[in-house]
Amino acid sequence: MKKADLQTGMWVEYRNGDKRCVMLGTTVGDVLVCEISYSGLGSFTDDLKCIFDIARDIVKIFKNDSPCDMLTGKCLTLIWQREPEIKEVTMAEVEEKFGCPVKIIKEAG
């Protein structure tokens, strides 16, 4: 999903769990709104990552199933979810992070 795919009435969820309603073409531009504030879509890259705060990366997009509830976010269906990012690291990088030698053990369970 790309920023250009967003439509008015859709809802987005940030990495931190906050949700916002998409409103395109307002007098202040294309925005994501909640009850107390709004954020401009200019703060996001085409792949829906916030340019100044990773906690506000968009990780889920919902369509609104009821126009009457557009601003309440009560009738939402998930239509896209960001795949978890997996970072590959070397053992040396892990040891540097912990500041000591590391031994990999089998996970409990």
Helix content: under 10%
The total of beta strands comes to 6
Based on the structure, what is the oligomeric state of the protein chains?
Answer: single chain
Number of helices: 1
User: What is the approximate shape?
Assistant: elongated
pLDDT < 50 runs, ≥5 residues: none
Mean pLDDT: 90
The computed structural class is mainly beta
Report the biggest beta sheet as strand number plus sense, adding barrel if it closes: 6 strands, antiparallel
Q: What number of domains?
A: 1
Question: How do the helices and strands follow one another from N- to C-terminus?
Answer: EEEEEEH
Strands, helices and their partners?
Elements: E1 11-14, E2 19-26, E3 29-33, E4 38-40, E5 58-64, E6 76-81, H1 91-98
Antiparallel strand pairs: 1-2, 1-5, 2-3, 3-4, 5-6
Tell me what the structure shows:
- By secondary structure, the chain is mainly β.
- The longest helix is centred in the C-terminal third of the chain and has 8 residues, at 91-98.
- It is 7% helix and 30% strand.
- It has one domain (3-98).
- A hairpin with a 4-residue loop joins strand 3 and strand 4 (38-40).
- It has a six-stranded antiparallel sheet, with no helix packed on it.
- It is built from one helix and six strands.
- It is elongated.
